[in-house]
Write a structure and sequence with these properties.
Length: 125
């Protein structure tokens, strides 16, 4: 970075990327990355999710992290929000389960019931 103009251009590019993601209204995946989640393996789960999305060229899926959700005994937790569908929280996740979740739920819309620890009845926006 050598000038204020370069900084402005970088900021504008970042803001445009954020606007596109917000407008996409697509699928969101939220990984619990509180201390309890990390201790239970959430980093590996997050890496597996990102890797699987890249392998499948799913660049319209937003992956974020959050802190402790209060379900420490069920960590690592992963929430999947698909527009027009209830929020699904998967628990006791592993890297292999996360990869299966991407294929089944994110790509094909099929919830993996045996991994679900919570289902929010409200429909995701």
């Amino acid at each position: 970075m050598k000038s204020l103009d370069e900084l402005r251009q970088l900021r504008e590019k970042a803001q445009e990327t954020i606007r596109l993601r917000e407008q996409a209204g697509g699928i969101r995946i939220i990984v619990g990355m509180g201390t309890c989640g990390i201790a239970a393996g959430a980093r590996e789960v997050m890496l597996a999710i990102v890797d699987e999305l890249q392998k499948k060229n799913l660049d319209d899926v937003i992956v974020t992290q959050t802190g402790c959700a209060g379900l420490c005994e069920k960590e690592p937790l992963v929430e999947v929000l698909r527009p027009g569908e209830p929020k699904i929280t998967y628990g006791y996740m592993t890297a292999d389960k996360a990869r299966a979740m991407i294929t089944s739920h994110v790509v094909n819309g099929q919830i993996i019931g045996e991994y679900v620890v919570a289902k929010e009845d409200d429909v995701a926006e």
